[in-house]
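Fill in residues.
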């Protein structure tokens, strides 16, 4: 490769944070402790003072959110089939049934026009996903939830830094789950956080986080709920804490790169062939990812071949995500092809292109040129 390989994502961790992690390691207190408390306080401040508890993953936050919402065996939770499989896996994990609703092909999020017809007497909660950081229409979502007496667990794993109606995601709504995985806009290497409604829910979340234990005094210990081992280490919390002051800058850098993508894709071969760009949104989304959808019927290669061509040109890419209901685990639960056609088509053709804060803006032009070149080379008909 003549140029340095460009990954689809790369975390930005400054030297002060790296030094801070070393300090934590030297301190002798490396599991959940003072750094975790400071991280929770910073996150709470970020979402307007709402209670926040950290966990070792965004998957754990979803599962605990479902438990706090009282979701269990016999209940149904409505969600999208286009997400990381953790979204619906957590519903199954608590003994409930995931009910999928197809996506809006433009936003690629849960289609709220189809939501109410999927509600049954067994529906206990809604779990929307904000794909690539773009929220659903929050006003409409919560109007539906209130009308039917439903809890909402927002899978906002990718949406830290996004907003709706001028308010940050997490500063409003019901239970809100964030992820701090290495590819997220803010990372703690691995980790997540759950935004809660009051201190009673926060206390319950804390118990679920560590084996259901409540401590009192020097030796008092009680267990009244079945918890697990989901706590965030102080090493990870220090990384997240070090990221907080940079979040606004990271988000703005992502937006600048997204604008570059739209500018370079305009009137090019890829768009002429039918490549679908993401929604042009610079009001709500944090631009966690820039995703295109390939017109597979107009190409003589499949998605894997397209990604291999990008890789050969020194460009990384990703798939976020295949349609969940087509995995074997879900087929065994009765889901079949053609149940959710928009999710299936987009899930088969979606490709995540490089976008991260430290990515040089000129690299966008290289990526778009490569996409255009591949589309021209492998078009099943002439591109005009």
């Amino acid at each position: 490769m003549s140029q340095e390989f460009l990954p689809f994502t790369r975390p930005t961790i400054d030297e002060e944070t790296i030094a801070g992690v070393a300090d934590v390691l030297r301190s002798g207190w490396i599991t959940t402790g003072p750094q975790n408390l400071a991280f929770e306080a910073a996150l709470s401040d970020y979402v307007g003072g709402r209670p926040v508890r950290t966990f070792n993953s965004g998957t754990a936050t979803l599962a605990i959110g479902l438990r706090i919402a009282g979701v269990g065996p016999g209940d149904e939770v409505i969600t999208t089939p286009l997400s990381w499989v953790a979204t619906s896996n957590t519903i199954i994990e608590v003994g409930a049934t995931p009910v999928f609703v197809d996506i809006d092909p433009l936003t690629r999020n849960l289609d709220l026009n189809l939501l109410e017809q999927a509600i049954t007497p067994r529906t206990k909660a809604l779990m929307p996903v904000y794909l690539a950081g773009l929220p659903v229409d929050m006003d409409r979502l919560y109007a539906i939830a209130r009308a039917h007496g439903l809890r909402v667990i927002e899978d906002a794993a990718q949406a830290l830094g996004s907003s709706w109606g001028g308010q940050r995601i997490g500063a409003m709504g019901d239970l809100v789950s964030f992820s701090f995985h290495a590819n997220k806009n803010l990372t703690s290497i691995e980790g997540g956080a759950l935004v809660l409604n009051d201190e009673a829910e926060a206390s319950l979340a804390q118990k679920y986080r560590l084996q259901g234990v409540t401590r009192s005094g020097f030796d008092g210990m009680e267990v009244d709920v079945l918890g697990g081992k989901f706590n965030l280490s102080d090493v990870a919390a220090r990384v997240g804490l070090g990221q907080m002051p940079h979040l606004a800058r990271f988000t703005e850098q992502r937006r600048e790169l997204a604008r570059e993508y739209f500018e370079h894709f305009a009137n090019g071969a890829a768009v002429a062939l039918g490549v679908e760009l993401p929604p042009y949104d610079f009001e709500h989304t944090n631009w966690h990812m820039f995703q295109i959808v390939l017109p597979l019927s107009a190409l003589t290669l499949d998605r894997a071949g397209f990604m291999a061509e990008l890789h050969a040109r020194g460009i990384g890419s990703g798939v976020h995500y295949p349609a969940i209901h087509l995995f074997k685990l879900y087929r065994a639960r009765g889901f079949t092809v053609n149940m959710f056609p928009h999710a299936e088509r987009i899930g088969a053709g979606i490709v995540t292109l490089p976008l991260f804060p430290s990515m040089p803006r000129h690299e966008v032009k290289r990526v778009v040129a490569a996409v255009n070149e591949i589309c021209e080379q492998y078009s099943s008909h002439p591109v005009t």
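The chain has a mean pLDDT of 97.
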